[in-house]
Specification:
single chain, alpha+beta, 5 strands, five-stranded mixed sheet, 122 residues, 24% strand
């Protein structure tokens, strides 16, 4: 995505940390995140867009607002008729949720199982 990002100008949605976490935590393909649970800012940006792919952009800061480093997280998403979903692999989803400080306990058993699997196979 870093190579394409400079050329994408019209389908970038800037979301809050809460929206970013909400969309990432919903990994059910059959029931994507409904638009009504998102913030008013995100909904207003999405109203102007037709269905299709979007870039979900989070501009945030680590630690203290005055001294902490700023960073930007971009992921690919899909704007449906009344929904928004993130198109990210499970491993990346967990990584982004950790970066945001979200609770990833629902992935806990999966992570420990996959580590045991790799340990056994080695």
């Amino acid at each position: 995505m870093p190579a394409l990002l400079p050329y994408i100008t019209k389908r970038i949605i800037t979301v809050t940390l809460e929206d970013y976490i909400t969309v990432l935590l919903n990994d059910d393909v059959k029931n994507p995140t409904p638009l009504h649970v998102l913030s008013a800012e995100a909904k207003s940006q999405l109203e102007d867009l037709d269905r299709g792919s979007v870039v979900l952009r989070l501009n945030t800061q680590v630690g203290d607002v005055s001294t902490g480093p700023k960073f930007q997280l971009n992921i690919v998403g899909w704007r449906g008729l009344n929904s928004l979903s993130a198109y990210v692999q499970k491993g990346e989803r967990i990584h982004f949720l950790r970066l945001c400080g979200a609770d990833i306990s629902k992935y806990g058993k999966l992570i420990s199982f996959s580590l045991q699997y790799f340990i056994v196979r080695l």
